[in-house]
Design a protein that fits this description.
Layout: H1 2-30, E1 46-47, E2 54-55, E3 61-65, E4 68-72, H2 75-82, H3 86-92
């Protein structure tokens, strides 16, 4: 009898937590959110030399090699680019 009560109590606790998580998710999804800011029409974008993603220069991670600035979508792409042999990277620019 005591085991049934304990299991029933545990079930109620788990059910209450699941219901709470569901309600928090519904409320968060229904809340007004700021629109994502993408590039404006005619705004200049640059291409990441590693993965080919186009990024806004104002949001890009940069690296200067020689007299040219390279723009990257992430720190990982910049690290990959830095570890490429220089002859390889000259062909990609």
């Amino acid at each position: 009898m005591l085991t049934r009560v304990l299991l029933f109590g545990l079930l109620l606790i788990l059910l209450a937590r699941a219901l709470r998580s569901l309600l928090v998710g519904i409320i968060a999804g229904a809340a007004p959110q700021a629109p994502a800011r993408g590039p404006r029409v005619g705004e200049h974008m640059v291409r990441d030399p590693v993965c080919g993603t186009f990024v806004l220069p104002s949001r890009a991670v940069t690296d200067g090699r020689g007299d040219h600035t390279h723009y990257f979508c992430s720190e990982q792409c910049r690290t990959t680019y830095r570890h490429q042999p220089k002859a390889d990277s000259a062909l990609r620019s």
